[in-house]
Amino acid sequence: MDKTSLTILEYIVSNAREGQATVFGTEELVSALPEESAEGVSVIPVVKELALNNLIRLKYSDGKNVCVEPLEKGILIVEKEQKRGLSAAIEDRSRSIKGIVTLSLLCGFAGGLAAVLIAVAVYFVVRAFAL
């Protein structure tokens, strides 16, 4: 399923009245899309594709309005995508925390190594001038 179809399906599922058939204007559905993908998009073919895949039931379409009812399969897909988005955000945060911890450990090791090298250099300089 492409991004446009998924966005329109999410909009229909979230705005339909408790799974009942709801009338949406085609302009309303286009406005649910991100600006970069909304240009030149006709939502009627997208709605028909969603209906063919048994994600929604298309009651009628007159070119300016569509009456659709989200079906169980469509609702499940939207819920799955929302969970996937949430788990991806948690995973990204987990990766960034692991990266910060790893970088902190490496910087601590490098700082300790630099301190040892400076101490050794000072030892040899003092020893050379002490003779």
Q: In short, what is this structure?
A:
The protein has 131 residues and is an alpha+beta fold. It is 70% helix and 12% strand.
Catalogue the unreliable spans. Answer: none
Report the count of strand segments.
3
Terminal CA distance: 80 Å
Shape: rod-shaped
Estimate the helix proportion, in percent.
over 70%
Kindly report the spatial arrangement of strands forming the biggest sheet: 1-3-2
Q: Could you say what the CATH topology of one domain is called?
A: Arc Repressor Mutant, subunit A
Rounded Rg: 29 Å
State the order of secondary-structure elements, H for helix, E for strand.
HEHHHEEH
Approximate strand percentage: 5-15%
CATH architecture of one domain: Orthogonal Bundle
Mean pLDDT, as a whole number? 86
Keywords: Membrane, Transmembrane, Transmembrane helix
Features:
131 residues; alpha+beta; Arc Repressor Mutant, subunit A; three-stranded antiparallel β-sheet; transmembrane helix; transmembrane; membrane
Detailed description of the structure:
The protein has five helices and three strands. The chain is α+β, with helices and mostly antiparallel strands and 131 residues long. The mean pLDDT is 86. The chain crosses the membrane at residues 100-126. Keywords: Membrane, Transmembrane, Transmembrane helix.
